[in-house]
Amino acid sequence: MGEQEKTGVELLDISSPANFPYDYSCGKIGSFFFKALRDQQKFYGRKCSECGKVYIPPRPVCGPCYAPTNEWVEVGPQGVLECFTVVHFSFLDPMTGKKRPVPYGYGLIKLDRADSRIQHFLSESDASRLKVGMRMEAVFNEEREGKLSDIKWFKPVE
Amino acid sequence: MARKAAIIAAGQTYHKSKRRDVNIVELIHEAVKACLEDAQMGPKDIDAVLIGNMEHFEGVYNPDLWAVDATGALMKHALKITTGGTTGASVAHAGYYHVASGLFDCVLCIGWEKQSDGDTTAGLIFQSDPLFERSNMAGAIGTFALAASEYMDRFGISEEQAAKVAVKNRGNAVNNPYAHLRRPVTVQDVLTSPPLAHPIKLLDMCPTSDGACAIIVASEEVARKKSPNKPAWFKALATRHDQPFNSDLPLLINMRTLQSAAKEAYKQAGITNPRKQFDVAEFYEPCTFAELSWYEALGFCELGGGGKLIDSGVTEMTGELPVNPSGGVISTNCIGATAMIRVAEAALQVMGKAGARQVDGVKTALATGFGGSFWTEITILEGN
C-alpha cells in the first residue's frame, strides 16, 4: 500500500527485482594472474617496461609512462597493511544479490616486491587488533577456482 | 581564444532521503523550472541542454531521452554526461566549454539523482573492477574508511578533529532551506554515532538524498543583456582523473588530482594565497576526514595541517575562509547533482543570493567536485 503524503494522493512504487547476470572476460593478463593463484598459490605483478614499477592488480599499460608492461614478477605472499577498515553497516552486495555479512575487515596490502597495493579481506574484524604498518600474509582456500576469492583473506604474520 | 562565460541562474529541488512525491522526470523538472524562473527565461531562450547522473544507481538509462519534455530539450542540442561523483561539475564544465567555444550562447546544465529508487552502495560496488575489487569493497563508506585510517596514521589526525567538520557543516545547513539534514550536531553526537566502517561513524558520512540542481551558463552578451542576476563569471576550471584502482592511489594523503587541478586553476586565476584570495569555498566532502585532507591539497594549510585548521576556526562561517556555508555534502548528497550544487552555491554566493547562508562581500568563490577513483573538478567563479 502506498502512503498518504501531503498531496492526499496514495503514492505507489513499482518494484523490479531483476536477475541480470554478467560474464566478465579476464583477458590474457588477468587469466595468467588468476591461474597462478589457483594452481600455484602465488601472486604475480606486472612490471612496466620503462619505469620498472610492478603493478598489482596486473595490467597491460603503465598509466604514468604510457608504456607496456612486459614482465611477470612474483610478489608476496607477505606484505604490509597500509590501510584498513572494519565494515559494520549492512548493504546489498551486487555480486550475490544478498546482504553482505558484516562485520568484516578489509584493507590495502602492499605485497613484498610490488609497487602498488591489493585490496582484500582481513582475518580480523576487530579494529583494535589491526594497525597500519602490520606485516600480513595471504591465506588461500583449499578449493580454488581462479578468482580473487581463492585468497580467503590476509592475516597478521605471527 | 575562449569566450567569457557566466552562470546567470541556478535552481534546486528540496532534498530528502525519499522524494516519493515525485518520479525521476518530475524531480528533474522541479530543478529546471526553478532555474528557468530564476533566469526569467523559457526553453526558447536555451540553445543546448546538458544532463548528468549515475544511471546505474536507478537502473534507468538515457535520462536525456526520458526527461526530454521536462528539460525542455525537445528539438535542441542535448548531451548526457556521467563521471561519477564529479558528474554535476562535469556537466557545469561542459556548459562552460559549450559557451566558451562560441558555438552556444545559453546552455542549461542539469544534475540529478534519485537514490531512493535504487541502492547506491551496491551501485558503487558495481562500478568498481569486477575481477579485483567488487568482492570486498564497501561503497564510498568503505573506501573513505580505508583512506581515513591511512590519513590518521600518517598525520595524527584525530576523530574529534574530523567530527568538527560535521559540527560546522551541519550547523551551516540550518541556514539552507534546501539542505537535506538541517539538525545541528555536536562533537559528542558524531563520536557516539553508530560505526559504519571504522573509523567512519554515521555522522562522519554524507547522507543519501534525492534531488536535482540546474544552472544556466551564458555568453557575455546574454549575461550582460538578459540576466536578471549578477553574473558569476568562470575564472578558471580544471579536471583531473586518476588511475583505476583504489589500491593505486594515495587516497586522502595529499590527494594528487586535487593538488594538480588546484595548481592549474590557481595559475589561470592568479591565486597565490588561497586563504586570502577566496572569499568562500564549497567542497564536495563525502566525509569529515576528506574535508580536512582537502584543506591541505588545496593549499589552505600545510600538508598534515587539516586538523589544526579546523581547530583554528578559519573555515567557520565567521572565519577567514568559510567552507561549505550550504552545509556541504555531509548535509545533502544527491550524487549526480552534488557537484553541481557546489558550483551553484558558489555562484549564489558571488551573486549575493545565498540568503541566510550568504557570506558578506563574496568576489571570488571556489567549488570542488569529487568522484571516480579520487577524481577532481575545480571551478573558480568571480563577480564583476
Total of domains of chain B: 2
Judged by helices, strands and strand pairing, the structural class of chain A is mainly beta
Shape of chain A: globular
Secondary structure category of chain B = alpha/beta
Describe the 3D structure.
The complex is a heterodimer of chains A (158) and B (384). Chain A has one domain (27-156). Chain A is mostly beta strands. Chain A has a five-stranded antiparallel sheet with strand order 11-10-7-12-13, with no helix packed on it. In chain A, a hairpin with a 6-residue loop joins strand 10 (104-111) and strand 11. The longest helix of chain A is centred in the N-terminal third of the chain and has 14 residues, at 27-40. Chain A is built from one helix and 13 strands, in the order ββαβββββββββββ. Chain B has 384 residues and is an alpha/beta fold. Chain B folds into two domains: 5-119 and 209-232, Thiolase/Chalcone synthase (Peroxisomal Thiolase, Chain A, domain 1); 133-206 and 235-324 and 350-382, 3-Layer(aba) Sandwich (Peroxisomal Thiolase, Chain A, domain 1), CATH 3.40.47.10. In chain B, 39% of the residues lie in helices and 18% in strands. Chain B has 16 helices and eleven strands. Chain B has helices at 24-39, 55-58, 63-66, 68-71, 87-100, 120-126, 139-155, 159-173, 187-191, 220-225, 256-269, 274-277, 288-297, 306-312, 328-331, 335-351, and strands at 5-12, 48-52, 77-80, 106-114, 195-197, 200-201, 210-219, 232-240, 280-282, 364-371, 375-382. In chain B, a hairpin with a 2-residue loop joins strand 5 (195-197) and strand 6. In chain B, helix 5 (87-100) packs across helix 16 (335-351) and helix 13 crosses helix 14. Chain B is globular, with a radius of gyration of 19 Å. The model of chain B has no long low-confidence stretch (mean pLDDT 97). The A-B interface holds A 3, 5-7, 11, 13, 16, 22, 24, 26, 30, 34, 56-57, 63, 82-89, 91-95, 100, 104, 106-108, 116-121, 127, 132-133, 147-149 and B 20-21, 59, 119, 121-123, 125-126, 129-139, 141-142, 145-147, 149-150, 153, 194-200, 243, 245-248, 251.
